[in-house]
Automatic annotation (TrEMBL):
It comes from the Bacteria. Residues 1-24 are annotated as: Disordered. The lineage of its organism: Bacteria, Bacillati, Actinomycetota, Actinomycetes, Kitasatosporales. InterPro entries: TPR-like_helical_dom_sf, TPR_2, TPR_rpt. Residues 1-18 have a biased composition (Pro residues). Keywords: Repeat, TPR repeat. SUPFAM superfamilies: TPR-like (SSF48452). This is Tetratricopeptide repeat protein.
Amino acid sequence: MSDTPPPPPQQPPAPGPGPRETSPETHVIDYRAAERLLAARDPRGALRLLDSVIAAHPENTAARLLRARAFFASAQLRAAEREFALVLEREPDNAFAHFALARTHERSGRHEQARRHFRLAAALDPQPEYLAAARFEK
């Protein structure tokens, strides 16, 4: 006989946070939560939620537009530009996307590109903010 005691019985792993189950409802909840996070000035938190939504629904233009806004708010300008451009490929008449892309170009120091998109935004939707940014000559 050996003097070493037998090994303790194996315990099953403690339940803990495993992979999160996702469903269409989960994606809607994540999208809405991302909107609230962006409004609360937490763009990086919004981006974390939107990544899974867009991975599951890459065709969802609203989610892409929200992600573009979150990229812009977190000063990730190249990523914002890519997302705004993708939205405009799908919806070339989206005045807000043109305006936001123009702001992105402006912030990046690309003023001629910004001016073009400001003018497109104003032509598509003559809101005072868009018209002022377009700076049409009289």
